[in-house]
Structure formats: C-alpha cells, structure tokens
Amino acid sequence: MTTSMSKGKRNFLVFLISIMCQLIYIVPYIRFYFYDQYVAAYELTNLQLGNLGSIYGLVALFSYFIGGFFADRFSIRSLMTLSFTVCAGLAFWEAMYPSYTSLILIYSLFAFFNSATMWPAYIKFLRGLGNDDEQSRLYGTSEALRGVLGCGAGLGLLALVVQFTEIKVGVQTIIITLGVSYIVFAVLSLIFLPKTSPAEKKNASEKGKDKPSTWKNFIATIRLPETWILSIFMFACYCTFMAGVNYLGTYTTQILGISAEISSGLGIVRNYGILVIAGLLGGVLADKAKSRLLFIVYLLIGVIILAVATPLSSGMVTLCLLISMVLPLFYYGIKSVYFSVLGDAGIPMALTGMASGIISFIALSPDAFMTTIMGSWLDKDPVMGFNMIFGWMVIWAIVAIVFAIIIYKRGKNRALKSENVLQKQGDIL
Question: Which residue spans traverse the membrane (predicted)?
C-alpha cells in the first residue's frame, strides 16, 4: 500500500473504481446479458449482432493503445468523468431504437470512451494502490466487486425487463435506467476521485523529478520483450474466457432448450455471481501460490477439461448445466488475476500506463473479430457452431499455458541474475 494513504481510503477507492469500471461496460455488453431479447428487440441476426461486437472490438483495439498515452497524461478523475458523461448520452441514443447503421456508430463511440479514456487508467490506478505482494488481491478484489455489481445489476434488470410484455419496451427501459446511472457516476467521479494517482504521488515524492516524456515511455515499453510475450499470453487467455462469457448463456437456450428468461437468470449468476467467488478466491490463492503464473496454468487446465466435457454432456441437461456453472469459476479465476502478473513479467511501475495500453491493444483484439466469426458459425449450424466455440477455448488455453511457462521461466532467470549481481557486489565489499 502507498505510504501516504490510509487503508480505509484505499479500500474505498478500490471499491469505487471497481464499481465504475463494471458499470460503464453494461450497456455495450447488455447484448450478452439478454442475448435473445436483444436480438428480438432490435430485429438483428446472430451475424449482425456479432458484427456490432466486432466493430466495438476493432475500435477498442486502437483505443486501448491511445489510452496508454491518456493514462500517463491525464488524471483518473478527468478521464472517468468524461467517459461516463459521453456514455450516458450514447445510452439514451441507443434506447431510441436507432437504425442498424446508427448502432454501428453507437458501439464505435462506446468502444472509444470505454477503452481509450477508462481502461488503461483503471489498470494504472489500481496497480498503484498496492505493492507487488498485493497485486493479485487488488485485482481479484476488484474483479469480485465488479462481479457483485454485475450480478446485482443483471438480476435487477432482469426483474425489470420481465415486467413488460413488450420486449422492446423492456429493453428500452433498462438502457435508459443505465444511462441515468452513468450521469450519477460522472458526478461521483468529480467528487471522490483524486486528481493524481497514488503511483504518481509516490514516484514524485521518491524521485523529485519530472516524469519521462510519453514518447520515451513508449519506446522503453516496446523495447521490452516482456511486453510482447505478455501480450500474446493475455491474448490467448482472453480468447479462452470470452468464448465462455459470450456464448454459454445462449448455448443453454439453443442446445439445452432452457427458456430465455431462465437462461438470462443463470447467465447473470454465471457471469457475475461466480465472478465474485472467482475474484476473491483467485486473488488470495494467486498471491499465496508459488507463482501467479503457475496458478493460472492450473486454472487453464481446468478450463480445457470442462470445455471438452460441456458438449459431450449435452444429452444430459442437468449435468451439462452444472458444468456450465462450474466452468466460469476457472476462466473468471484467470480473468481476475492475469493483469496482476505485470510485475512478475518485469514491467516497471513507471511504464504501467503505456504497457497496459499496448498489451490491451493486442490482448483484447479478439473483440474485433471473435463475435463475427462465432456468430457466423451459429447461423450456419448451431450444434457444430457451439462445438467449434468449445474447441476454440481448448486451443487458446493450450497457447496460454505455453506462454505462461515462458514468462515464468524468464522471471526465474531474471531473479537468478539479480541474485548473482548482488552476491558479486557483496563479495567486492
């Protein structure tokens, strides 16, 4: 923990920034809360909805990169206030049932103001709230808090939407409600978030120097081999768990025959309630484990086993539903801690903003193409499409394991070299 901040204040900031980070994603991702209802309300095909997701991901891809510059140059308060203000306006626009072309623009703007002005700033701010030994707990707690909000909001929105017999009115109401909440959190950003991040205060007090230029940070970051190795590792992790996050809900509807309402309820518990458990357990266990990276490897092995078991058990609905509720425990465990390995991979604190932007640019790029690919698979043949989605999870989990081991071994070699240097210095003295 930073020495200039009380534990109570730090905990409050972790709570606030986590809730804000979750809330701002609900509108653009509401299509996965209520997949079938959203498709019906906007009269979209699976492919069109997939295209909206891919457009969102493509814009976000470049926005993460830009966000690295923003995170190093502007205060968290300014970035969050701007993000929530603009996203409130976009929510109100989306609630008016605009044309498909307008939806493309709305999703593009959501992507920019979620990813350029919010995400890298969130990562940098959160990392600065604790020391290296606390990183997994910080990120895990943050993910758990986001899960609490996601689950509570999802169940609340589900309770709201079922009050309306007309699907369009129900979906419109929940989007407007979220737009109003965005305005509230824009005000809360101004009131409670500090102008300067804890990490920047700490660096300023320790060094008493101007921080390096953005360009120098960029060059220093791209020269680090760890930046690129970590990017591929996180890319593979993201490919793995987003397949489950996005499609397990509609899998239970289309393959297992569960009603859309029950599927939405299970999906909310699966995607947010289980996230709470996975976040808290993942953060604590990862920090206590011999290595955070090896802990993630074990979780990836669990994902592989359950991803294979899900389609094989589709003939036994109860068993398949049970597996579909356990699988998120593993992939959300990964999601809750995989950004905590920045320090393990050798990324300096001073480069966190820039590194998180570059890494996110690569790691989260599946958003630009994954939903379009999978939407086309499902439109052609739902059964084969879902089998291919689970196969996708397995393949990328294996890739993630390989790169996790590479990062782990490089870290051990780096630590050994440091010990040797210190030993030589001691011998000289």
Answer: 12-34, 54-71, 78-97, 103-123, 144-165, 171-193, 228-248, 268-286, 293-310, 316-334, 346-364, 384-408
Is 2 part of any domain? no
- Amino acid in the structure at residue 55: I
Here the CATH number for the domain that contains residue 106 is 1.20.1250.20
Enter the pTM of the model: 0.68
Residue 191, domain extent: 7-197+223-428
398, two tokens: 């294996």
- Model confidence over 201-249: pLDDT tens digits? 555 444 444 445 667 878 888 888 888 999 999 999 999 988 887 788 8
Element (H, E) at 302: helix 292-312
SS3 content of the chain, % helix, strand, coil (to 5): 85, 0, 15
Alpha helices, DSSP H, located in 116-197: 119-127, 135-161, 167-192
Pairwise CA distance, residues 429 & 420, whole Å:
14
Question: Residues of 162-171 as b/e, b for ≥16 C-beta within 10 angstroms?
Answer: eeeeebeebb
Structural domain count of the chain: 1
**Residue 371, domain member (yes or no):** yes
Please report, as a single letter, which amino acid is at residue 336: S
Q: Is residue 305 part of a domain?
A: yes
Distance CA 204, CA 202 (A): 5
Q: What is the DSSP letter of 211?
A: P
